[in-house]
Amino acid sequence: MIDILSFWKLGRKIKTTPSGWVSGNAICCDDKRGRGGIKVSANGWSYSCFNCQFTASFVMGRGLGFRARQLLTWLGVSDSDIDQLNLDSLRHRSVYGIIDDRQRVAMAITDIKFDECDEFPPFSELVTPEHEAQWQYLRQRGVPEDYPVMTAIENDGVHWVRPQVIIPFMHHDQVVGWCARFLDNRQPRYINHSQPGYVFGTDLQRPAWQHVIVTEGIFDALSIGGLALMHNTVSDAQARLIRSLGREVTVVPDQDRAGMDLVDRALDLGWAVSMPEWPEGCKDVNDAVICLGRVGALLTIFQARETSRIKIEMKRKQLAKRLLS
Questions:
Q1: pLDDT lower than 70: segments of the chain
Q2: Pairing outcome for strands 174-182 and 211-215
Q3: What's the CA gap between 26 and 8, in Å, rounded?
Q4: Are 137 and 270 in contact (CB under 8 A)?
Q5: Is 85 in a helix, a strand, or coil?
Q6: Can you count the helices (H) and strands (E) in the chain?
Q7: Of 11, 36, 231, 284, which is most buried with the most CB atoms under 10 A?
Q8: Which residues pair with 58 in a beta bridge?
Q9: Segments of the chain assigned to CATH 3.40.1360.10
Q10: Which pLDDT tens digit goes with each residue over 144-157?
Q11: What is the pTM of this model?
């Protein structure tokens, strides 16, 4: 297989994130702010540009697509090497393709597809320690340093004159939407660009995990490694996507009146619910992580996890009384 990183690093100043992305000036557009990135796995690679949203990927056992060929050509890979890679991949498929096809057919039953994002805030770049206000805000919210949060460094005179962080919505290593969280005290605080049925945080999950925690907010999910619904209910499409992960589901609603609506939906879906007794002032998962740390918050969530409908209803009534007091 072609060592794509050696071509990517040639003549380019690069940075490597803890999650494995190797970023540098994108080759697909006139980028001078290091907004392109390549991530290599054991069986292939993915490329993403946060400037023009060009993406390409390759997995051994599948044919080279047009975008993958285009990217390799831009990087200076010869046509003969590209053709040889495609041939080697097809040979690999002849050995492993049957198993791979069966797995992908099984996944397709429940996997929800999303279009790549064709609209992204202009002039954005990765948040690094040089972006002092944004970096400090993300650290305070418990956001992992390896998640590619962006910020707009220029503006269109309408939306992006305000300080903000921009959180890409990822699904299968592709950008399928985004959320802008403004850092001043003006309204609106958030602008979302998402697709129906999307659940934030699927790319945060790890293969060995047996449980998945479902929360309401994006920062809840980022700080705990969970999923975010981005509202206080679960659509049918979101439920199918969450179930497709094949894990034990625990819903952690915000501890406010709106959050109690999420409990009803969780009960209808037969999912476990957790309503921990957090310290005063903690109304959601992110508050708990900030107060107790990630491990401490996780312990409280699993200790309060209930599957009994009767016990969940009792806990909700207790919480409702506390909210009214």
A1: 92-111, 118-119, 122, 154-160, 325
A2: unpaired
A3: 10
A4: no
A5: helix
A6: 9, 15
A7: 36
A8: 45
A9: 196-325
A10: 988 889 988 766 55
A11: 0.67
Structure tokens given for 172: 């299968």
Place of tokens 């996944």: 107
Question: Residue 157 — left, alpha, or beta (φ > 0 → left; ψ -120 to 50 → alpha)?
Answer: left
160-204, pLDDT tens digit by residue? Answer: 678 899 999 999 888 899 999 999 988 889 988 999 999 999 999
pLDDT of the residue at 109: 38
Residue 63 backbone dihedrals phi, psi, to 5 degrees: -70, 150
Residue 144, sorted as left (phi over 0), alpha (psi -120 to 50) or beta, turns out to be: beta
Q: How far apart are CA 49 and CA 37, in angstroms?
A: 6
Domain 119-194, what fold?
Answer: DNA primase DNAg catalytic core, N-terminal domain (3.90.980)
Exposed/middle/buried for residue 190 (C-beta within 10 Å: 0-12, 13-18, 19+): middle
CA angle, corner 238, sides to 235 and 241, nearest 5?
A: 155
Q: What is the DSSP string of 87-141?
A: HHHHHHHHHHHHHHHHHHHHHHTTPPP-PPP----SSEEE--TTSHHHHHHHHHT
CATH 3.90.980.10 domain residues, the chain: 119-194
Report how far residue 188's alpha carbon sits from residue 257's, in angstroms, rounded to the nearest whole number.
Answer: 21
196-325: CATH architecture: 3-Layer(aba) Sandwich (3.40)
